[in-house]
Amino acid sequence: MSRLRYSDASLEGAHAASDAAYRTQLAYLWDHSEFYRKKLAAAGISSVEDAGGLDDIARLPFTEKDELRASRDETHPIGRHLAAPMSDIVRVYSTSGTTGTPSYIPLTKSDLANWVEISMRSYGASGLAQGERMVTTYNAGPFVAGVTLDAFAKLGVCHIPVGAGNTERLMAAVQLLKPTVLGCTPSYALHLAEWAVERGVDIAASSVNKILVAGEPGGGEPAMRQRIEKAWGARVTEAMGIGDISVSLWGECVHQDGMHFSGAGFVHFELIDPDSGETVPISDGAEGELVYTHLKHAAAPLLRFRSRDRVRLSTGACPCGRDGSRVRCVGRTDDLLIVRGVNVFPSAVRDVVGKIGNGVSGAIAIRPTARSVKQAPPLPVVVELAQGAEPDDALAGLIRKRLRDELLVSTDITMVPFGTLPRTDYKSKLVDWSEAE
Ligand SMILES: [Zn+2]
């Protein structure tokens, strides 16, 4: 599969540079990674030369998160994919995984510098620059999001970290320090809007005119984005990365038409069909799962790493002049439910319900009856009403119809009063498994 059908000379140049970096990365892995030497040999690849270049990448096997986890033991606490000596490692992050032992993500000095560069491109696209004052609620701690803090400093942004879990402290910072930018999850931006309404605080009149969201897909859902923008009187843009590959790999510009790829030269991305594993050609409107390959990584480079992030790609020109592709996240494979053969992403359900407008708060929960990806219809969906709104059969019927028309899924709608579903200063859980058998 050649990407050289692009006529644009600069893209061809970029492809040639990426191809050269990729071949060097493969040779490095062959020499330094027991994990990949074995894995490539098992896939029938006899030498680095045999693996070829970027145009042959689809011949290589995928790398799954579970394989990395399984390669850990007492003598290899990071995993057998560690390709650099520990004496070269300058930082070790952890993943916020829900299961038991954390996974570790090591970085060398050059890896860290490259991540900061990628993050600067991503947040630079969103308009972060010297002169902006940004209040953030990231509890970066042990997590890779910590690298963004280095990027903010290097961009010259006045960064005001207030951490998560203290809305009073955050709103005090907004009122006293008058930041122009708020950085948080989309769920928290919405929660702050409700908090302000309850206390009669006019956040639309606040100094905040940009909201940079990350950490979950909601920032790209039109209904949720519109709610946040209206409440805050601010423009919402989003960013997306993935711990094992890089933070902030994608960043949306002021034209708000998806997140620009910010990893060029450091990371190669592909789209695949998540069911068959087949390559999906890079073209405008293409949909698939993102698969990433490091091009210049040293500590623990990964080949064809499956992200589980499903995206829709745009490749047309953007008025900002940035080259390359932009994406919108459609959902995470891990959240996917299949109802009578139809794929249903919980975030898509939230978007359809949110577009109903004034009658609903925008919060939903899916309560499956079976503990399985596959669900029998109708899918139980709890919809929270807007403040002061009463349950209404006509509204429930309208929501049921919209979900059937737009997502081809039959649902059973339960309406609950405003404030019933949990609010969060982090990511919303859209699937509540408590009633599943
Ligand atoms: Zn743009």
From TrEMBL:
Stored Pfam families: AMP-binding, AMP-binding_C_2
Highest taxon of source: Bacteria
AMP-dependent ligase C-terminal domain location: 341-431
GO molecular function terms listed in the Swiss-Prot or TrEMBL record: ligase activity
InterPro entries: AMP-bd_C_sf, AMP-dep_Lig_C, AMP-dep_synth/lig_dom, ANL_N_sf
UniProt keyword terms in alphabetical order: Ligase
Residue ranges annotated for the AMP-dependent synthetase/ligase domain, each copy included: 63-292
PANTHER family hit by this protein: BLR5969 PROTEIN
Protein name listed in UniProt: Phenylacetate-CoA ligase
Source organism of this protein record: Tropicimonas sediminicola
